[in-house]
Structures are given as C-alpha cells and as structure tokens.
Amino acid sequence: MSDFSKFSRVFHTVMALNGLSALATEESAKKFHLLTERMLEINQRMNLTAIKEEETIILLHYVDSLTLSTFLPQNARIADIGCGAGFPCLPLGICRPDLSILALDSTEKRIRYVKETADLLGCDGINAVTMRAEEGGKGIYREQFDFCTARAVAALPLLAELCLPYVKVGGTFLAMKGKKGEEELNAAAGAIQKLGGTVTALHPITLRRNDSANEEAETRYLIEIKKIKPTSAEFPRAWGKILKKPLS
C-alpha cells in the first residue's frame, strides 16, 4: 500500500498545474489512489502500463485523459475506442459521473480489468464491452454517440475510419494524439472528409509536471472533428483492409 497523503499532495499539485483543480476533490484523489494501486498490482501479471512511478502515472495517464473533460457537455454519450488499460474512460468515469461511456476493446482480459475496476471505483456510467472496433461501427453502435475518442490506438488516417462511424451527425470525434498530431492530421484530411467529418479545431495541450522554467513539458494534441454527414455504409472496412490501404 502506498502512502495516500503523499499521493494526494502530488495529485492535487499536478492537477492544479494543468488547470484541472475543479476535478481534484478529496473523493477523486481517493479513487485515483485506489486505481493506481490496482493498476500496478494487476500490471505484475498483465501488461497494462510501462509507467510505474506515481507522479508520472498521474500526469501521463490521468491528467492526459482528463484534458477531454472541458470538451464534453453534461450527460454526453461517449465511445472510448480501444480503451486498453482504461484510458481515458476510467479517469473520466471518476471525475465525470454524468457521462455515459462505452469502453470498447477487442481483448477480453483488458475489458474484464476495466469492468472490474469501474465497479470497484463506483463508476456506474461505464459499460465495458469486448468487441472489435470495426464490428461495433458497422453494427449496433453505429452513429449512436455524441462523442467518440481514442488514445494511442493507431495513426489518424486509420483511426478516423474506426471512430467516425460511431458518431452521430452533429457529434464530434475527439482524437487524442501525441507530438506528431499536426502531421497526422495533414495525412488524414482526405479520410476525414470521405467519412463524413470536418476538422473544426486542433488544440495543442501541454502536460506540466512542475512550474519550473526549465521543465521539459509533454506536448499533446486534441483534434476536434465534427460529423457533418452520415458515414457511407462501406465504412468501416475490415481491419486488414484499413491497414493495407488507409483512406487518403
């Protein structure tokens, strides 16, 4: 068991540095502490994260996930595609219980982990389902969501084909990308248009660990893509076809 008081101090400090103080309550600190302990425990037998140090987990997993919160209105319905170890769905579930979140992943053991962890944390708004992204986008989840997001899943030309089919017309795909986000966006322009989307904003995001002038901050991009018309029935294609011939 790690020291909660130390964790809480670091959590509140890092959240404040990144403009997320409103989400850093004592209750959320307790839940994130519990999430950290469980993730690191399960990580010993199942690959969930390469990051083991608490402060870095808070910044690169929790704060990074919560940068979405500003863009999500109350009671929005969200699809988290390729949720993996539960990011961004678990941090959003902790801090935004008003959201209804579908957490989708093709790996059964990861979905079982997300489901059990959501139950442990009291995140009743999370529904974790084992399914391939292209199956859900062709089937029962097609154009059912106000927002769709994905983190560390695939390059944007491929990711757009997996995610935009989930979004209602008038809804938004929020792509969470790393420092090459702008470059990926340029490569995905044609795919986004073919899938019924239009880019409305590219938000650079700086993840700050401390307030030192010498700090090497982490750069992220949040790409906001509006769904302006229905996605053609031919999309998404099977993953092998998406991979072999990305839309352009």
Description of the structure:
The chain has 248 residues and is of the alpha/beta class. The protein has nine helices and seven strands. It has helices spanning 4-17, 26-43, 54-66, 89-95, 108-121, 133-138, 156-163, 181-194, 239-244; strands at residues 77-81, 100-105, 126-130, 145-151, 167-177, 197-207, 218-227. A seven-stranded mixed sheet has the order 3-2-1-4-5-7-6, with helices on both faces. α1 crosses α2, α3 (54-66) crosses α4 (89-95) and α7 (156-163) crosses α8. It is globular, with a radius of gyration of 18 Å. The mean pLDDT is 95.
Q: What layout of secondary structure does this protein have?
A:
Layout: H1 4-17, H2 26-43, H3 54-66, E1 77-81, H4 89-95, E2 100-105, H5 108-121, E3 126-130, H6 133-138, E4 145-151, H7 156-163, E5 167-177, H8 181-194, E6 197-207, E7 218-227, H9 239-244
Parallel strand pairs: 1-2, 1-4, 2-3, 4-5
Antiparallel strand pairs: 5-7, 6-7
Helix pairs in contact: 1-2, 1-3, 3-4, 7-8
Provide the structure class: alpha/beta
Distance N to C terminus: 50 Å
**Level of helix content?**
40-55%
Please report the number of helical segments: 9
Radius of gyration: 18 Å
The helix/strand order is: HHHEHEHEHEHEHEEH
Task: Provide the β-strand percentage band.
Answer: 15-25%
Average pLDDT confidence is 95
Write a concise keyword list for the protein shown above.
globular; 248 residues; 40% helix; alpha/beta; 9 helices
Concise description?
The protein has 248 residues and is of the alpha/beta class. 40% of the residues lie in helices and 22% in strands. It has a 7-stranded mixed β-sheet, sandwiched between helices.
